[in-house]
Write a structure and sequence with these properties.
The chain is mainly alpha-helical. 62% of the residues lie in helices and 7% in strands.
Length: 121
Amino acid sequence: AAKAVADAVRTSLGPKGLDKMIKQSDGSITITNDGATILKLMQVLHPAAKMFVHLSQAQDVEAGDGTTSVVVIAGSLLTAAERLLQKGIHPAAIADAFQAAAKKSCEMLQEIAVPVELSDR
């Protein structure tokens, strides 16, 4: 279900993203290609899929943008984890590897970051 949610918003990503038509239970129809709106209007019951919706909402609150991107990335990570599980790799090893990758990613971002003065216009 979570991968289905990620796939649903993946096609709305980018300048050539497709619009989605969502019909709600009250009969109202919304046409949008905004990932946050799509996820907000979807009635998601699956716990993992709900986590994707909450992830998108947290991204919207924190940065105000990138809601579709975080769901697409999370869906890709979920797909990668599923492939590793099918190869017989233990879930704890997968989680440890994801944590190590996240730590290394943060280190690399810190290395390439350029300081910005907020007063410099």
